Amino acid sequence: MSNISKLKKGSQDFITQLALGDSKSNAVTLAIARSLAYSLTMPSAKIDNLAIYFNNTYKIDIENFLFDLNEMVLIDVRAIIDLIYKFFYFRYNSIYPDNSVIALNEETGLVDFFALSKYFSPENLKTIQTESIKLTRYCLKINMLMEELGYK
Questions:
Q1: Mean pLDDT of the 70-93 span
Q2: What are the sequence ranges of the domains in the chain?
Q3: What is the pLDDT of residue 1?
Q4: Axis-axis angle for helices 132-148, 26-37 (nearest 10)
């Protein structure tokens, strides 16, 4: 049975809005991934294999939330999980940098400076840049959903 009845009216309206067309958009996929990734606790020390740590520590809880959400509205679970890891990896490398040399190009200096292209595709970076207001709104609503469904 769907968890939609557990949600407050605003969250139910958001699910309806997504179901009417936005649910598989890149902006929704990025917002769900970012919200989940930023809810994860970072390790307190450097990890030898971050992918194994991520999978062993967080993947089941992430999948449970995504399956609950996917029951209410069709989302691209595989793409979201991939992006959650990329956001997590970006955060991890911000805390424990690998000290690699960065190459700055004039046209993409900001993206290069923070090594964003190492983690995110050009399509994702373009969505982040051009749909920032929508992404912010989606992230706020997804954070509320996570809380209402007991995942935060």
A1: 95
A2: 3-148
A3: 43
A4: 50
